[in-house]
Design a protein that fits this description.
Strand order of the largest sheet: 2-1-5-4-3-6-7
Oligomer: single chain
CATH superfamily: Glutaredoxin
Number of strands: 7
Number of domains: 1
CATH class: Alpha Beta
Shape: globular
Radius of gyration: 20 Å
Length: 178
């Protein structure tokens, strides 16, 4: 006996289409996948894009000046910045401070704590794309900007762990573009 259901196929097609990406939906970060692109304002007012660092290992830290563990992590990231800045590694702090004076607050913190690595201001979309739920949150990208490691929260010795990750990534040959 053959059962006919002429509406099943059109209903399935509609369901499949409805579960697809929504217009304007942001790509989500996932280990092993390309990192979501961003364009964020720096403390100097200029826009920095992930694409600006093509061919470099990128370490991003989502943080805020009001977060005590984040302040500890900035010390470790500054040490990493000094160690690797001339070896094709970019450290980026993405501040989640909010309010009209947020940029000034971050700039003051960076000056008072001798933080020389790049500081950018989160726009909400970037932290959402990287699924940041708690801070600090650290993301390590290889030279092709594929997300290779995440560190949610602050861990004692985080700088040493990240340094090992960076050394491993730097030891891999760069891919040649065809």
């Amino acid at each position: 006996m053959k059962i006919r259901c002429p509406l099943i196929f059109p209903v399935l097609v509609v369901l499949v289409l409805l579960t697809g990406c929504k217009a304007g939906e942001t790509q989500r970060a996932a280990v092993g996948s390309p990192a979501p692109a961003f364009a964020l304002q720096g403390l100097d007012g200029r826009t920095a894009r992930l694409a600006d660092f093509r061919g470099k290992v990128v370490v991003m830290d989502f943080w805020a000046t009001w977060c005590a563990p984040c302040k500890e992590s900035t010390k470790e990231f500054e040490a990493l910045h000094r160690k690797f800045k001339d070896r094709g590694v970019v450290m980026i702090g993405i501040s989640m401070d909010k309010g009209t004076d947020a940029s000034a607050t971050v700039k003051k913190y960076a000056q008072e704590n001798t933080v020389a690595y790049l500081m950018l201001m989160d726009d909400g979309r970037t932290s959402d794309a990287y699924a940041v739920r708690n801070i600090p949150a650290t993301y390590i990208l290889d030279r092709d900007h594929v997300l290779v490691k995440t560190y949610p929260g602050y861990l004692s010795g985080l700088g040493d762990r990240i340094a090992k990750e960076i050394e491993e990534l730097l030891s891999k040959p760069e891919r040649s573009e065809s």
